[in-house]
Specification:
It is a single chain. This protein is mainly beta. It has 2 domains: 50 residues, no CATH class; 124 residues, no CATH class. It is 15% helix and 41% strand. A hairpin with a 4-residue loop joins strand 10 and strand 11.
Length: 192
């Protein structure tokens, strides 16, 4: 095979690749582009590159980026520290744990954020033990009357309102304006 024949085959192969690329990139997914390959006359010299009949233009796709927020979720459990019916137990110098009817609230519990349509748009797990945020004097010193758990839900897409659920304790609604005014800090509480 002569070098002119090889050049023509290469040119045809390039034209086919261009057509496939145009179709794959979305420039011609709905309307196929026709690429004309015109072989040069036998004495014309080197083979010219194939060109499409209409040069497809690929429009840049600039989807609007949605604003996101990091939302801090704080769950405060208020309860009684004493006896069998006590719901809070002091741990260490400033820590606390929940007991009894609140024993499901603590490390490992999940905070879930929903948009107005009910879709989950963010979640995080409470990783750290509770922090004693209110105490009272007991027979052996200060005992907790409020135990707080905090987590950070990152990159929550902006919405008109947010339904925030901690564990399986129900959903509390916050408007976008409320959370923005509170510096994206959602405070929930349960108990006495």
């Amino acid at each position: 095979m002569t070098s002119v024949g090889i050049d023509r085959m290469k040119s045809a192969a390039r034209a086919i690749c261009v057509a496939l690329l145009v179709a794959a990139c979305g420039g011609a997914a709905a309307t196929p582009q026709i690429i004309y390959i015109t072989p040069p006359p036998p004495s014309a010299g080197p083979v010219q590159e194939a060109t499409p009949s209409t040069a497809p233009t690929r429009r840049p796709t600039t989807e609007p980026t949605l604003a996101t927020h990091d939302i801090t979720v704080k769950m405060a459990v208020r309860g009684q520290p004493f006896g069998e019916s006590g719901t809070l137990l002091g741990v260490g110098e400033n820590g606390c744990e929940t007991r009894g009817g609140y024993s499901d609230i603590g490390p490992g519990m999940q905070a879930t954020i929903h948009n107005p349509a009910g879709d989950v748009i963010g979640f995080a797990t409470f990783e750290t033990p509770g922090l004693r945020t209110q105490s009272m004097e007991g027979p052996l010193g200060l005992v907790p009357t409020e135990c707080t758990f905090t987590t950070l839900v990152r990159d929550v897409p902006e919405a008109e309102s947010y339904g925030i659920e901690v564990g399986s304790r129900g959903t509390v609604q916050f408007s976008d304006d409320e959370l923005a005014a509170a510096a994206w800090f959602a405070e929930l509480s349960i108990g006495d």
